[in-house]
Every structure is written in structure tokens, then in C-alpha cells.
Specification:
The complex is a heterodimer of chains A (64) and B (239).
Chain A (H helix, E strand, L loop, with lengths): L1 E2 L1 H7 L4 H8 L3 H8 L7 H11 L3 H4 E2 L3
Antiparallel strand pairs in A: 1-2
Helix pairs in contact in A: 2-3
Chain B lengths: L13 H30 L7 H4 L1 H29 L1 H5 L11 H29 L8 H25 L2 H30 L8 H23 L13
The chains are: A mainly alpha (64), B mainly alpha (239).
């Protein structure tokens, strides 16, 4: 699943560690999300959306 | 709102990873050469080792079992060290890809104890396999060591599960499921061959060693697929 995490993070000048700390996950999780190696669970997706103040669909793109 | 496309981050450790694999393959070749020579002497009855009494397959299991035990003991030490030494904690090669972050730091103490329990339980089994004729005055004491080790493993695995975030949990679950399925397929083949008299069969210890070996390989494969930077010593550029 494609996502705009990296772009949104860069706009706020956050490192992967900063984003990971904010979401209470590991930096590896953020890296895996951004590279498309891992899709977040629904709770984590909602957490990400709340953090950026955007709807989930604005961050994650369904590629099916 | 801008829509910049950041440059693709380099995976610095890919060269180191390939070099490590090549090194391991080379070492494996050397070990295989000597094991092959030893097997030939074994079959010709020229060795005076006690291992000749228990046969080739159990000897191979014992050899791999001892290697695994050494890995577990080192792992216990490394995770214990990672609890107090940030440099070790940051080294993702030494910490199995976890690195130094809040989620990983919560897991280090549990992982250290997990490997202590693992070493206790599995180490006892390795000893029993190596010296099958040893008579114990208190056999239930030896069984108790295995039970304590297994209980410690179970408790620590629960704590590690609670500490891990969903990404590491996914890797753990996928590794366990895939390795169990592969060993299951092997079990079908082995059981069929044994029932047909084509093969004398593997012992429980042989299967235990085989499963652990398969699990370690599969965990590495799954981790590599999910996180190509898993085995880099340094953090990626935009960390």
C-alpha cells in the first residue's frame, strides 16, 4: 500500500525516530511503512491520521 | 501544501550484509570439508571418539545443537549488555535488528532472560544427548532444570510480545508460522520414509535442532524482506 508518510514527515521536518516516538512504535516500523514493506494495523493507521490531522485516505492509498 | 519527493535512501549495509553472507558461506565450506573427512573416517570405523557410539545423524544434531547453544548464550550476554551499554543497543547486528528505541529497550531485559531460560532448557537436552548413558541420582532434578528453563522462556516470551510493536510481532508470527509449516512438510516426508523402512528415523532431539535451525534461517529471511536495513550497523540516513 502506498502512503505519503515520508512526505508528511519531511514537511514537518521530523526524523523517523521523531515520528516513531510520537506513535510509540519502533523506528524500524516507520521505515517499513514508508518503504511499503509493511501495512499498518487499523489502530495504528488511525493514530497516524490523528497525528497528522488528516483522514486515513489522505495518507494511505489503496493500490488494489 | 508541497508535494516533494524525497530522494530514495541508500541502504548502506547491503554490501556489509553480502560480505557477511559470503563469509558465512566460506566458513560453512570449511566446516563441511572437515565434517566430510570426519564422516568418511567415521564410516570406516577409524575414529576412537565416543560419538561413534551414537551414530552420524545424532552426532550431526549434537554438533548443530552445540552451535545453537553457543548462539543462545552469546545472545543472552548481548541483550544483557544492551540493557546497560547504549553502543551495543544501537548496533542492530548484535541486537537482531531491534536497535535502540523505546520499544526495543523494553524488550532487552526480557530477551536476555529468555535466552538464559533457553540455554538452560536446551543446554540440558544437549548434555543428555551427548552423554546418553549418564546415570543421574536425581533425574527429576535434571527434568526440573528443563522445566524451569521452559517456564522462564514462556514468561519472557509473553513479556517480549507485550513489549514489541506490531511490526516486530508480525515478523515473529510470520517466522514461527512459516518455519513450523516447513518442518511439518519435512516431518511428512521423514515419517513416510520411516514407515516404509527406507530410513531409520530421526529422534526428538534431531527434530528439535532442525526446527531451531530452520526458524533462525526463516527469521532472517522474513526480517530481510520486511526491513532491508535490519542488519545494518548504523542507522539509515533519515533516521
Amino acid at each position: 500500500m502506498k502512503n505519503r508518510l515520508k512526505v508528511l514527515r519531511a514537511e514537518r521536518d521530523w526524523s523517523q525516530s521523531d515520528l516513531a516516538d510520537a506513535l510509540d512504535v519502533s523506528r524500524q516500523t516507520i521505515n517499513a511503512l514508508e518503504t511499503g514493506k509493511y501495512d499498518p494495523s487499523l489502530p495504528l493507521a488511525f493514530k497516524i491520521a490523528r497525528l497528522f490531522g488528516l483522514p486515513i485516505e489522505a495518507i494511505f492509498e489503496d493500490t488494489l | 501544501m508541497t508535494n516533494r519527493t524525497p530522494p530514495k535512501p541508500r541502504t548502506k549495509g547491503k554490501g556489509n550484509f553480502l560480505l557477511g553472507v559470503a563469509g558465512l558461506a566460506f566458513l560453512g565450506g570449511i566446516v563441511g570439508y572437515f565434517v566430510g573427512g570426519w564422516v568418511r573416517e567415521f564410516e570406516e570405523g577409524r575414529t576412537g571418539l565416543f560419538l561413534a557410539e551414537i551414530g552420524f545423524a545424532p552426532s550431526l544434531s549434537l554438533f548443530i545443537g552445540v552451535l545453537l547453544l553457543i548462539i543462545y548464550l552469546i545472545s543472552a550476554g548481548l541483550f544483557g549488555l544492551a540493557m546497560v551499554n547504549p553502543k551495543v543497543a544501537r548496533n542492530r547486528v548484535l541486537t537482531g535488528g531491534l536497535g535502540d528505541n523505546p520499544s526495543s529497550r523494553r524488550a532487552f531485559s526480557s530477551l536476555a532472560l529468555f535466552y538464559v531460560g533457553y540455554s538452560l532448557a536446551f543446554g540440558t537436552l544437549v548434555f543428555l544427548h551427548a552423554f546418553p548413558k549418564t546415570a543421574f541420582g536425581q533425574p527429576f532434578f535434571v527434568l526440573g532444570l528443563i522445566l524451569i528453563g521452559a517456564a522462564l522462556m514462556g514468561w519472557c516470551a509473553y513479556r517480549v510480545w507485550k513489549s514489541f510493536d506490531e511490526f516486530f510481532r508480525a515478523i515473529w508470527v510470520e517466522s514461527g508460522a512459516l518455519s513450523a509449516f516447513i518442518v511439518l512438510l519435512g516431518f511428512f516426508v521423514e515419517m513416510g520414509a520411516t514407515q516404509l523402512g527406507l530410513y531409520k528415523g530421526m529422534t526428538g532431539f534431531d527434530w528439535l535442532v532442525l526446527y531451531q535451525f530452520v526458524y533462525l534461517v526463516i527469521y532472517g529471511v522474513v526480517s530481510g524482506i520486511r526491513d532491508p536495513n535490519m542488519l545494518t550497523m548504523e542507522e539509515p540516513e533519515d533516521a
